[in-house]
Design goal:
single chain; alpha+beta; 6-stranded antiparallel sheet; two-stranded antiparallel ribbon; 9 helices; 10 strands; elongated; DNA-binding transcription factor activity
Length: 248
């Protein structure tokens, strides 16, 4: 076995066994070159390959550390229970808290924009129609997890906290119901792909890490689409669970 592969496999085994936990400092290049009697470039190659796998990352001033990888399970049906958001709980925060993790979000933009085709088709409106968008970045355990952009028809958000930084207890779903919309159905579409360069930067993705593109459309009891959320989720932080009755 080539020396760089031996270094790579030894370090991977130590990480996967838990001997080196999240954010643990790995042996320095000097230590690795001495321990394995190899050139500095050989040890660097091993570390770079582990970085490409998303297992480690370089942290300025410290060296190489084990990359923290919180992976909350997204319960695709149960997470939307009315009992959660109607009680004033934010869906993502409640779901991650139940798994022992801390989530938060940061607003990137609140604005009136022209609906792109992906959104317009699902809202049933002409492309370019003015809609309201809330762009957020969500973090789990202080790591960027998702770029979530929620689009709403303008008539549904006028005078509501959906136009504010803080939507209030229960989030957008609760505000829509307060305004008279009875939410009834959700459709989710998922697709895996490689990120754009901008997405990779915004989510701090290591090289080679895919993303999951999730488009959620929410409908009221009349069948009208009242919200489209277009999300880009870090692939190494994605786990989806669906349990449902088998249709006749």
């Amino acid at each position: 076995m080539a020396k760089y592969r031996q270094i790579r496999e030894d370090l991977r085994a130590l990480i996967e066994s838990g001997e080196y936990g999240p954010r643990a400092l790995l042996p320095s290049l000097t230590d690795l070159t001495a321990r394995y009697r190899v050139a500095r470039n050989t040890a660097t190659q091993a570390l770079k390959e582990l970085e490409q796998e998303g297992l480690i990352q370089s942290e300025g001033g410290r060296g190489w550390i084990v990359r923290p990888r919180p992976r909350p399970r997204r319960h695709g049906i149960d997470r939307y229970s009315r009992s959660t958001w109607a009680a004033g709980k934010a869906i993502l925060i409640a779901e991650t808290a139940s798994q022992g993790m801390v989530a938060r979000q940061q607003i990137r933009e609140l604005a009136e924009v022209e609906a792109p085709e992906v959104v317009a088709v699902r809202l049933g409106i002409p492309v370019g129609t003015t809609v309201w968008v809330r762009r957020r970045t969500t973090f789990i355990e202080d790591r960027a997890h998702q770029l979530a952009d929620s689009y709403y028809p303008l008539d549904l958000v006028e005078g509501t906290a959906i136009r504010q930084v803080d939507t209030g207890p229960g989030g957008g779903f609760a505000r829509l119901e307060e305004s008279g919309e009875r939410l009834d159905e959700i459709n989710e579409e998922l697709a895996a792909r490689m990120p754009t360069s901008r997405e990779a930067i915004d989510l701090s993705l290591p090289p080679g890490t895919p993303v999951v593109e999730l488009i959620r459309t929410t409908y009221d009891i009349s069948g009208r689409a009242v919200e489209v959320m277009w999300s880009i989720i870090a692939g190494d932080m994605s786990s989806f669970s669906y349990r449902f009755k088998i249709p006749d």
